Fold this protein.
Amino acid sequence: MREIEVFIDTEEIADFFMKELVQRGYVPSEEELEELADITFEYLIAKCIIDEEWEEDV
């Protein structure tokens, strides 16, 4: 299997959820969106879809 490098940002996930939820008639708070984004990120890690890597300060 080929490995590719993918960058996933929880802020982008939160923006995506906001658009999708508003289209469906829901208006979540910013705190709720952040929680959903974090849960989604943790799910992707748990399913081994992504690996979490920390950036080193240069």
